[in-house]
From TrEMBL:
This is Diguanylate cyclase. Its EC number is 2.7.7.65. Residues 342-386 form a coiled coil. Keywords: Coiled coil, Membrane, Nucleotidyltransferase, Transferase, Transmembrane, Transmembrane helix. Residues 414-558 form the GGDEF domain.
Length: 558
């Protein structure tokens, strides 16, 4: 058994020890709950890598690989949630945002667990110890990268914000190091062991090592820093210089300090008991106070806020913020309540919204006109390039677009083939059934030919009953095979026309030409003339096919 397998087990045990240490030594707050979940998901990776390496059961190997990547998929959303808590942005994550935030992770995990058509992973050498990743693996990587960039956005904004206190900035700085370590190891693992695995030896344990080192950073942040200190924040000489109303309450909701500006909002004194629920019931609240009270009553260690409206002339708006005060053991020992007058801001926002609504209506009208013009232009373009009878490309497309396709083939020295064909005895069909039925036969023939073409092949109505097929990246051998498939499919198709009891059998005569040898120094000056020359050679081959009995393919020597 490889030593790298035991290396993953060793890292798992270290991560488990950190998990037990955090669980046993810190108070279980919302931030800790988020981190413990995050830590648990990190532990699953080395554990599953170890379990995959020690079992010979193919199905168990697939289970452990799936579980490790499901945990990794969910780790992205946990990563973002943890950084939101560390930067004090958790109050912005309501239930709806949490739900939307988790959708990409859940989709990624579901695709990993389902592994339809081996789109995520398939075994090599009879098991999943050596495996090949499919397109869904890269979807998971893109989703994780998106979570990583969103987390960086939270952290960098918090670090550079003038409103972020110094302690939070220190937390953010160390957390950034942890995230960069994890990302560096994981991306190195991806590059060396997935992208370059065919050329380089496998280096196991890179992601596991990155997870463990980053966990050390996160645990250090949790144990080292306190968000607020009650003595410095409650100091009277400081809070009286602040224009906002400030009230400091202890864990029993007794008021231990107020500043002078508080009198403008609420009439209380030091030593009074402050009943938050009763206070909110006595004023008008913008929105619902339920969530705010839930955070407040359960003593969640996050900043929460609510808007209060005072019904007087003029109407006043205030923001009430409740911030936890945490001791050195990360226990909540009180709160700071801050009242901020935002009446002027609300008026400006209201006026700005009114102006934005006017602009939005004008932009909506312009967008509607722009969309209508775009749709009309697209339809005109399609009509200009498409034959109205057969829905194939027309001769205008031949000269305007196909010349560019052939020019690119010549520059890339990629072989291509042209087939010029027409419907055998089409004049007899017109004479017997009339032009309406003749048009129907042309339409049905075109649809039948399209069924046998590849997505990159191009069918063009050249004129009358003549059509052109362009086969890119196709040499003569493949062109012969493809042309024969077209001919046989049309020959086997019976077309019912008019009131005739017997269906009409259609055959094709084909003239083909393949271009395989190129001289890049002699690029044709006139691509349209060059194309016409090719079609002229194909037309000679078509004439030869008709002379040799029709319903056959003749290749021009070019």
């Amino acid at each position: 058994m490889s030593l790298s397998v035991w290396y993953d087990l060793f890292l798992f045990l270290l991560l488990f020890a950190l998990f037990v240490y955090v669980f046993a030594t810190v108070a279980i707050t919302d931030l800790r709950k988020v981190y413990l979940l995050f830590h648990f998901l990190m532990m699953l990776w080395p554990l599953c890598q170890f379990a995959t390496g020690i079992t010979h059961d193919r199905h168990l190997q697939l289970f452990y690989v799936t579980l490790s990547f499901v945990a990794l998929s969910m780790l992205g959303s946990g990563w973002l949630l943890l950084t939101a808590f560390l930067t004090g942005n958790a109050n912005k994550l309501g239930r709806k945002r949490l739900f939307l935030l988790s959708i990409p992770a859940v989709v990624a995990a579901a695709g990993v667990a389902k592994n339809p058509f081996n789109l995520f992973v398939k075994p090599l050498e009879g098991g999943y110890i050596h495996r090949e990743y499919g397109p869904w693996f890269w979807v998971v990587i893109v989703i994780l990268l998106s979570y990583f960039l969103a987390s960086l956005s939270f952290l960098f904004r918090a670090f550079h914000s003038c409103r972020t206190i110094l302690t939070i900035k220190k937390q953010v700085k160390i957390t950034l190091w942890g995230i960069f370590v994890l990302a560096t190891f994981a991306l190195t693992d991806l590059l060396l062991n997935v992208v370059l695995r065919e050329w380089l030896p496998i280096i196991p344990g890179l992601t596991s090592a990155g997870i463990f080192i980053s966990a050390l950073f996160f645990v250090f942040v949790i144990k080292r820093y306190n968000v607020l200190d009650i003595v410095s924040i409650a100091h009277e000489d400081v809070i009286n210089t602040i224009p906002y109303g400030i009230m400091v309450v202890d864990e029993n909701e007794s008021i231990i300090e107020v500043n002078k500006a508080l009198r403008l909002f609420v009439d209380v004194n030091v030593g009074d008991y402050f009943d938050m629920e009763k206070f909110l019931g006595s004023v008008r609240i913008a929105g619902s106070s339920r969530r705010f009270l839930e955070h407040y009553k359960h003593k969640n260690n996050i900043l929460s806020q609510i808007e209060i409206i005072v019904e007087r002339e003029p109407v006043s708006h205030f923001i009430l913020q409740a911030s936890p005060i945490i001791d050195s053991y990360r226990m909540q020992i009180g709160r700071i309540l801050m009242f901020q007058d935002v009446s002027q801001e609300r008026y400006l926002v209201k006026e700005l919204n009114r102006q934005n609504e006017i602009l939005r209506e004008r932009n909506h009208s312009l967008d509607s006109i722009r969309n209508e013009l775009s749709i009309a232009n697209q339809k005109l373009k399609e009509m200009a390039l498409t034959d109205s009878l057969t829905n194939c490309y027309n001769r205008y497309y031949l000269t305007e677009q196909l010349t560019h396709e052939i020019e690119n083939n010549i520059q890339d020295r990629a072989p291509f083939s042209l087939i010029l064909f027409d419907v055998d005895f089409f004049k007899a069909i017109n004479d017997r059934y009339g032009h309406v039925i003749g048009d129907e036969v042309l339409y049905r023939t075109a649809q039948t030919v399209k069924q046998s073409l590849r997505s990159t092949d191009i069918l063009i109505r050249y004129g009358g009953e003549e059509f052109i097929i362009y086969f890119p990246d196709t040499d003569r051998r493949l062109a012969e095979q493809l042309a024969e498939e077209v001919r046989l499919l049309v020959e086997s198709t019976r077309i019912l026309v008019g009131h005739e009891n017997e269906p009409v059998s259609i055959t094709l005569s084909m003239g083909a030409l393949s271009v395989e040898n190129f001289d890049i120094e002699h690029m044709p000056d006139n691509m349209e003339g060059y194309l016409m020359g090719l079609l002229s050679e194909a037309d000679k081959a078509l004439y030869q096919a008709k002379s040799n009995g029709r319903n056959r393919i003749e290749f021009a020597e070019y």
